[in-house]
Write a structure and sequence with these properties.
The protein has about 375 residues and is α+β, with helices and mostly antiparallel strands. It contains twelve helices and 22 strands. The protein is about 30% helix and about 25% strand. The chain has a seven-stranded mixed β-sheet. The chain has a five-stranded parallel β-sheet with strand order 12-2-1-16-22, covered by helices on one side. Strands 5-11-6 form a three-stranded antiparallel β-sheet. It is globular and about 75 Å long. The two termini are about 30 Å apart. The structure holds flavin-adenine dinucleotide and uridine-5'-diphosphate. Its EC number is 5.4.99.9.
């Protein structure tokens, strides 16, 4: 085994795996990837459950992008199953398309009123407009305000309270803007031109990406046991390491929580296998007005796997991350105050000229898979141009 490395990557999710491949293949570097879990893929990891059903262990992942570069890059490591994600909200037993769109409008209001509201919406905004719930609520027309209040009450406020412990006004506006009111009858969750599920699942995609003669992956290794950061110098196994170090874990943890803990939300997943072919109308159903969980995902509908007679579903419960062993920080809680705390850690990292922070955790951002893959590609563009 090669024991001399000239690039160190911590973490093997999208950020770490794309960066490792780029540094090895395009940059000709010998790359060591340290991953503390027993598998690659980070939160996109999937595997068969004990009933033979392909599940996403850390929550449902649907690939979608408008970035041709990312789609072409990942397509080197996987084929795709055509899949367009559709979500409905369970509103007192009725299934309303989410994002709330013109079809939802006609389900929510009586026929003539809905037709009038549709006309009003289309003249106030425009066909196919994506209107955030917060901006719709600022509309002064009393009838449009009524639509806004309906959507706020039946789609956003309770779900957001469950997911974040805060109201839509209290959280980062970019978060609810991810799911706008859509002035069209397009009932897909995403409108990106490239969408799909990796043909054999996410884990094989990562395995292929990391399968390169200049990449060594060590699983079950917490980088903090091998790495030390002091006086602008990064040490690996006690020796100064001068090559690029691409770190994709939590930045507060990297610096031993010197300035305190960055807040995150964690999730508890409740998996259940039922003896039916199909459980619910769409792969994901959001519970926007009732229940303690936010949503239920039925995996066979996502992956297209054919298994007659049984199906695995998963409920998601969100709560504050406490840092206890085994808990995973899934979502950065983005706010001006938390961003300022993050900034202090980023400044500390800036004292190490070969350290690069990359990913949802290390950058304390709400990246989708495609966005972090693109960030990894452009970070490596920059490193390799130097
Ligand atoms: P991660 O996937 O978190 O990978 C970081 C890796 O670093 C982990 O494997 C971790 O074990 C490792 N690590 C951390 N610290 C250390 C250390 N000290 N030593 C060694 N290893 C370490 N995006 C979409 O595009 N579509 C979706 O449908 C979608 N659904 C999602 C659903 C949920 C519930 C969640 C939480 C996220 C979802 N995402 C989705 C976002 C997606 O998960 C992220 O964009 C992606 O995982 C980010 O990759 P990453 O490499 O930055 O982080
Ligand atoms: N959201 C909501 N109701 C829904 C769907 C989304 O209130 O039915 C809000 C909620 O605040 C959520 C945010 O919109 O956190 C972003 O939703 P998205 O589905 O993009 O979150 P993801 O699960 O992908 O992180």
């Amino acid at each position: 085994m090669d024991t001399h490395f000239d690039c160190l990557v911590i973490g093997s999710g999208y950020a770490g795996s794309v960066a490792a491949r780029e540094m090895a293949e395009r940059g000709g570097r010998r790359v060591l990837v340290l991953e503390r879990r027993g598998h690659v893929g980070g939160n996109a990891y999937d595997c068969l459950d004990e009933h033979g059903i392909l599940i996403h262990k850390y929550g449902p992942h649907i690939f979608h992008t408008s970035e041709r570069r990312v789609f072409d890059y990942l397509s080197r490591f996987t084929g795709w199953r055509d899949y367009q994600h559709r979500v409905v909200a369970n509103v007192h037993g009725r299934f309303l398309p989410v994002p709330f769109n013109l079809t939802s409008l006609h389900m929510a209001f009586p026929k003539e009123k809905a037709a009038r509201l549709e006309d009003k919406l289309l003249s106030a905004y425009s066909a196919n407009a994506r209107v955030t719930i917060l901006s719709l609520r600022e509309n002064t027309d009393p009838e449009l305000r009524e639509v806004a209040d309906y959507v706020y009450e039946n789609v956003f406020v309770h779900y957001t309270m469950k997911q974040w412990g805060q109201t839509p006004e209290e959280i980062d506006p970019a978060t609810t803007a991810r799911v706008p009111v859509l002035l069209s009858r397009d009932d897909r969750y995403f409108q990106d031109p490239y969408q799909g599920m990796p043909l054999e699942g996410y884990t094989p995609l990562f395995q292929r990406m990391l399968d390169h003669p200049r990449i060594t992956v060590e699983l079950g290794v917490d980088a903090r046991e091998r790495m030390a950061l002091e006086d602008g110098v990064i040490r690996l196994d006690g020796e100064p390491f001068a090559g690029p170090v691409i770190y994709t874990g939590e930045v507060d943890e990297l610096f031993s929580f010197r300035f305190g803990h960055l807040p995150y939300r964690t999730l508890d997943f409740d998996f259940e296998t039922l003896e039916v072919d199909r459980f619910q109308p769409t792969a994901t159903v959001n519970y926007t007005v009732s229940e303690d969980y936010t949503r239920i995902t039925e995996y066979k509908q996502l992956t297209g796997q054919v298994v007659p007679g049984r199906t695995t579903i998963m409920k998601e419960y969100s709560r504050a991350y406490t840092g206890s062993p085994g808990e995973i920080p899934y979502y950065a809680v983005i706010s001006p105050e938390n961003n300022a705390l993050y900034g202090r850690y980023r400044d500390l990292a800036g004292g190490f000229s070969n350290l690069h922070l990359l990913g949802r955790l290390a950058e304390y951002k709400y990246y989708n898979m495609d966005a972090i893959a693109l960030r990894a590609l452009t970070l490596c563009d920059g490193i390799l141009e130097q």
